[in-house]
Amino acid sequence: MVSNEGIGSSFLKQPSERSPKLRIYESLFLLNEGIDHIIILLREMGKLPFADRESVQCAVVEIEEVRCDMNAEFTEKLAGSERFDEGRFWKQRQEFEKKWRDPDDVYIEVGRREEERKEQGLPPRLGVLPHSAVAAEEDRRETEQGRKKERSKKPAK
Q1: pLDDT for 111-136, tens place per residue?
Q2: Reduced to 3 states, what is the DSSP secondary structure of residue 15?
Q3: What is the sign of the dihedral through the CA atoms of 16, 19, 22 and 23?
Q4: pLDDT per residue over 51-109, tens digit each?
Q5: CA distance 148 to 141
Q6: What crossing angle do the helices spanning 53-100 and 20-46 adopt, rounded to 10°?
Q7: What residue segments make up the domains of the chain, in order of their start?
């Protein structure tokens, strides 16, 4: 009789509210564990004096083929499901990170990337303007806008 002592599972003992995914993986594990037990028994039986070793080996091969077929069937379907879930959870994580992200982090990332490029001997892709240059440009624009407003207020002659 095969027991499910391998992982101390209660899978066969009682139904629970665990994830369906866990039940599938656990079933697959138990199938493989059970097949291992069967193969061990067959190999031990093959050592008996009246055993036809070739028949036993043929049975082992057939059982291994069934194991591989079942593993492939389940894992192929599980892989698609896992990729789908991975994408869904990735999107959810991105939403959380978006809420927590500081909008100015982008400047830190750019600085890191520019540092990497510098270490690789590559030219910079961006130049960072000093605050004084940005402030001077803002002042120039404000002055220009002020002049435009004054011209629009003057009556036409």
Answers
A1: 899 999 999 999 988 876 777 877 88
A2: coil
A3: positive
A4: 999 999 999 999 999 999 999 999 999 999 999 999 999 999 999 988 888 888 888 88
A5: 11
A6: 160
A7: 20-100, 105-151
